[in-house]
Amino acid sequence: MLDRAGKKDRLSIDIVPDGAADFSHGFLGESTPMAIVLLGEREGNVIPYLKDDIFALEILSVSQSTSTPPVDAQEKRQSKMNKAIREVEHTNAVVFASSFSGKWGDYDLDSLPADEISEEDTPEENNPRN
C-alpha cells in the first residue's frame, strides 16, 4: 500500500469467499472494495486506490495460496457484530435516559440493565479457559 507521505506498507492477503473472510489473519473477502480492485491484476502493477492516506496498491507478487481460512470465521464475525449491536443499543439507552426529563421524573440510570459480555464475546487472550 502506498500512502501520500511516500511510505509503503506491506500486506500479504488471500482473497477468499466472503463467508471465510478474516482480515486479521490475512483473508480478504472477495466482494470488498480492495479485493475487487486487486482481482485480475498482475505482479508489478500499481493500481489507484483511494482510502484514507492510501492512494495506490502495488502488487509485489501473486501466487496460489497455501493457507486455509478458519472454518468458524463467519460465526466469529457474526458474534462480534452481535456484541457491537448490543453495545450500541446500551449506549443509546444510556444517552436517552440521561437526557430525558418527563413530568413524572427522570430516568434512573442505575435501573438500566448492565452491559453483559459473555465468554464467547471475550477475546481469546483474555479468556481464562484458553
Task: Map the helices and strands.
Blueprint: E1 2-3, E2 14-16, E3 27-29, H1 33-38, E4 46-51, E5 54-58, H2 73-99, E6 101-102, E7 105-106
Parallel strand pairs: 2-3
Antiparallel strand pairs: 1-5, 4-5, 6-7
Describe the structure in your own words.
- With 130 residues, the protein is of the alpha+beta class.
- The chain has two domains: 57 residues, no CATH class; 54 residues.
- The protein is built from two helices and seven strands.
- The chain has a three-stranded antiparallel β-sheet.
- The chain is elongated.
- It starts with a strand and ends in a 24-residue tail after the last strand.
- The C terminus is likely disordered.
Strand content: 15-25%
Please state the structural category.
alpha+beta
Kindly state the percentage of residues in helix. 25-40%
The biggest beta sheet is recorded as: 3 strands, antiparallel
What's the helix count? 2
Number of strands: 7
- Evaluate the radius of gyration: 22 Å
Low-confidence stretches: 117-130
Order of strands across the biggest sheet? 1-5-4
The shape, in one word, is elongated
Write down the overall mean pLDDT. 80
* Overall number of structural domains: 2
Ends: how far apart? 35 Å
Helices and strands, in order, run as EEEHEEHEE
